[in-house]
Amino acid sequence: MKHILSANQFNKNDLEKILKRASVMEKQCKSDKIKKLLINKIVACIFFEPSTRTRLSFETAALKLGAQVISTENAMENSSVYKGETIEDMTRMLCCYADAIVIRHPKTGITEIASKVSTKPIINAGDGANQHPTQGFLDLYTIKKEHGRLDNLTIAFGGDLLYSRTLRSLLPFLRFYKNNKFYFISPKELELPREFIKELKNDGVFFEELRSLENALPKLDVLYMTRVQKERFANNSDYEKVKNLFILKFKHLKNLKKNAIIMHPLPKINEIEKDVDNDPRAAYFRQAQNGLYVRMALLLYALGL
Ligand code: NCD
Question: Global pTM?
């Protein structure tokens, strides 16, 4: 069994294997071949933060592979953690019932704590602003599928780069591939933490930090937009100040290459104008669909199958 806690635990070989498996899952998704791969297994999904795609795609992935699912979607109130039970004790109990445990929690490092006492694979479905490795995998899979390659790409991350855990999981993956150039586009208040900038500089990665989209757009192969993470702000007035500072508008699309793609982990709120959805370069719903195949592959990986 293998825990999936952080993008940083994987090497390039792991990535290639998991992407390949996901592509097999995509091809076999509707066939009988996969229906018994997780027969007699139980997957627990314990979510302390809201989720649509991550939880439901994990549950669908488990069901497609023949597993059964036990689930708590509002674990902050509906689990005994509400009464004060520790994550360690909760994990020990889940190990009595389930074969794999998917956890989302607002606190950084929670899944690592759980993994220390767990006899079953723990899968991090998002821990605070820290990591969201399974999203990183589905984002990588999407770029590969849409562009046919993972190197020689110009990629911009736009929006809330301070708190986006999906960026923190995708960026280390992309850095395994050669000649990728990065633009980090955000208001000052939401810029990428300096520790990441320092690391990129030390490693000689090509990158630029920008305050507006316009100049970068014509160069991009991938524009990865993010939601301003309201739930991470200490007070609402700080959120109100920045929530609408960064928006991809329909008029911007004329400056984007014909084969560029617009990605977003979703949910999107104000950061992408609705009309953008109808443009074929808007890849975010295709991206979410890919999450199913990638999470099928990741459940098999975690269970050592
Ligand atoms: C992301 C998350 O939870 O970090 N959502 C997701 O899992 N697709 C992004 C977000 O909530 O903004």
Answer: 0.97
